[in-house]
Specification:
Helices cover 37% and strands 39% of the residues. The chain has helices at 16-26, 58-72, 81-87, and strands at 3-11, 30-39, 42-50, 74-80. Helix 1 packs antiparallel against helix 2 (58-72).
Amino acid sequence: MKKTIVTVVGKDKVGIIASICSFLADSSVNVCDISQTIVNGFFNMMMVVDLSLSTKSFKELCEEGQKLGESLGVVVQMQKEEIFDLMHRI
Protein backbone atom coordinates (compact mmCIF):
# COMPACT_ATOMS: atom_id res chain seq x y z
CA MET A 1 0.00 0.00 0.00
CA LYS A 2 1.29 3.48 -0.91
CA LYS A 3 -0.25 5.70 1.74
CA THR A 4 -0.35 9.46 1.35
CA ILE A 5 -1.69 12.17 3.66
CA VAL A 6 -3.94 14.75 2.00
CA THR A 7 -4.82 17.97 3.82
CA VAL A 8 -7.37 20.54 2.71
CA VAL A 9 -7.72 23.89 4.49
CA GLY A 10 -9.68 27.04 3.70
CA LYS A 11 -12.91 28.96 4.00
CA ASP A 12 -15.87 26.59 4.06
CA LYS A 13 -18.21 26.36 1.09
CA VAL A 14 -20.47 23.81 -0.54
CA GLY A 15 -18.80 21.05 -2.55
CA ILE A 16 -15.27 20.88 -1.15
CA ILE A 17 -15.48 17.25 -0.01
CA ALA A 18 -17.35 16.17 -3.15
CA SER A 19 -14.81 17.84 -5.45
CA ILE A 20 -11.76 16.42 -3.67
CA CYS A 21 -13.24 12.91 -3.44
CA SER A 22 -14.30 12.98 -7.11
CA PHE A 23 -10.80 14.04 -8.14
CA LEU A 24 -9.28 11.18 -6.13
CA ALA A 25 -11.78 8.61 -7.41
CA ASP A 26 -11.20 9.70 -11.02
CA SER A 27 -7.48 9.03 -10.42
CA SER A 28 -8.15 5.56 -8.89
CA VAL A 29 -7.05 6.72 -5.45
CA ASN A 30 -8.75 4.97 -2.52
CA VAL A 31 -9.69 6.92 0.62
CA CYS A 32 -8.68 4.82 3.65
CA ASP A 33 -9.58 7.32 6.38
CA ILE A 34 -11.02 10.82 6.52
CA SER A 35 -11.54 13.44 9.19
CA GLN A 36 -13.01 16.88 8.65
CA THR A 37 -14.14 19.75 10.78
CA ILE A 38 -15.46 23.26 10.37
CA VAL A 39 -14.51 25.85 12.97
CA ASN A 40 -15.84 29.41 12.73
CA GLY A 41 -16.44 29.00 9.00
CA PHE A 42 -13.03 27.50 8.25
CA PHE A 43 -12.84 24.04 6.71
CA ASN A 44 -10.12 21.54 7.66
CA MET A 45 -9.88 17.99 6.29
CA MET A 46 -7.24 15.29 6.59
CA MET A 47 -7.37 12.10 4.56
CA VAL A 48 -5.22 8.99 4.43
CA VAL A 49 -5.33 7.66 0.88
CA ASP A 50 -3.84 4.69 -0.97
CA LEU A 51 -2.10 5.44 -4.29
CA SER A 52 -1.34 1.79 -5.15
CA LEU A 53 -3.82 1.66 -8.04
CA SER A 54 -3.55 5.31 -9.08
CA THR A 55 -3.53 6.09 -12.79
CA LYS A 56 -1.32 9.15 -12.11
CA SER A 57 2.10 9.74 -10.60
CA PHE A 58 2.48 11.32 -7.16
CA LYS A 59 3.78 14.49 -8.82
CA GLU A 60 0.76 14.70 -11.16
CA LEU A 61 -1.63 14.18 -8.26
CA CYS A 62 0.07 16.93 -6.24
CA GLU A 63 -0.02 19.41 -9.11
CA GLU A 64 -3.63 18.65 -10.05
CA GLY A 65 -4.69 18.70 -6.39
CA GLN A 66 -3.14 22.14 -5.94
CA LYS A 67 -4.93 23.45 -9.04
CA LEU A 68 -8.22 22.00 -7.84
CA GLY A 69 -7.67 23.61 -4.44
CA GLU A 70 -7.06 27.00 -6.06
CA SER A 71 -10.32 26.70 -8.00
CA LEU A 72 -12.15 25.88 -4.76
CA GLY A 73 -10.43 28.59 -2.71
CA VAL A 74 -8.66 26.09 -0.43
CA VAL A 75 -5.12 24.79 -0.02
CA VAL A 76 -4.60 21.12 -0.92
CA GLN A 77 -1.35 19.44 0.13
CA MET A 78 -0.19 15.84 -0.30
CA GLN A 79 2.63 14.17 1.62
CA LYS A 80 3.85 10.61 1.37
CA GLU A 81 3.27 8.78 4.64
CA GLU A 82 6.95 8.01 5.21
CA ILE A 83 7.91 11.68 4.89
CA PHE A 84 5.01 12.71 7.11
CA ASP A 85 6.14 10.18 9.74
CA LEU A 86 9.76 11.40 9.63
CA MET A 87 8.72 15.06 9.94
CA HIS A 88 6.65 14.36 13.02
CA ARG A 89 9.07 12.18 14.95
CA ILE A 90 10.20 13.28 18.37
